[in-house]
Amino acid sequence: MTAAEPTPSGLASEAGALDPPVVFYDGDCGLCHRSVDFLLSHDRLGRLRFSPLQGEAAAEHLPPERLRDLDSVCLIDSRGLHLRSSAILRALVHMGGAWRLMRVVLLVPAPLRDAAYNFIARNRIQWFGRPADACRLPSPDERERFLP
Question: Is 146 helix (H, G, I), strand (E, B) or coil?
Fold first, then answer.
C-alpha cells in the first residue's frame, strides 16, 4: 500500500496518520466501552471513529506490539500514534468546543499522567467488569463510526 492509498476501512493512511482520528480500545473491557460511549455521546460533530484493538482496522493500522498491549487506548490522528493518557486527552480535544481546553492537561508530563492511567488500567476489569456487564449497543448512526 502506498502512503496516500485509501485503506480498506475507507480512511487515507499516511505515515501512520488517520483522518478522521480513530480511537482503538480494548473490546473486552467495560471501562473502555463506557469511555467509547461517553465519546460518542459528547462528540456532537462526529469527528472520532472507533475500533477495538482486537479488530481488523487495528491489525491494519497499529504496530504488532500495540495489539498485544490491551491496557493502552491508542489514538491515531493526523499527528500520528498517541497512547494512554495522551490518546484520551487528544480524543477529547478532537471533539472541539470546550473540550479543547483539555489540551492544557497535555502540558503535564506524560509519565505523571500515565502513572494514573496505568493504575486505572491495571484495575479496570475488576472495577468496571466486561462489556456484557457494562455496555450498550450503538445506534444505527453510531455504528457507522465503528471500523471492523
Answer: strand
Please say whether the beta carbons of 17 and 76 come within 8 A: yes
Cis ω before 63 (30° cut-off from 0): no
Higher pLDDT, 17 or 40: 40
Position 97, amino acid: G
Q: Which cell numbers in the block locate residue 77?
A: 490522528
| Residue 61, pLDDT above cutoff 60 | yes
DSSP secondary structure string for all residues of 43-90: -TT---EEEETTSHHHHHHS-HHHHH-TT--EEEETTEEEEHHHHHHH
Q: Is residue 6 part of a domain?
A: no
pTM, whole model, 2 decimals? 0.82
Residue 9 confidence (pLDDT): 39
**Residue 127 maps to which CATH number?**
3.40.30
Report the distance separating Cα 102 and Cα 121, nearest Å: 20
Per-residue confidence band for 35, with pLDDT thresholds at 50, 70 and 90: very high
Q: Are 76 and 12 in contact (CB under 8 A)?
A: no
The pLDDT score that the predictor gives to residue 16 is 60
| Domain count along the chain | 1
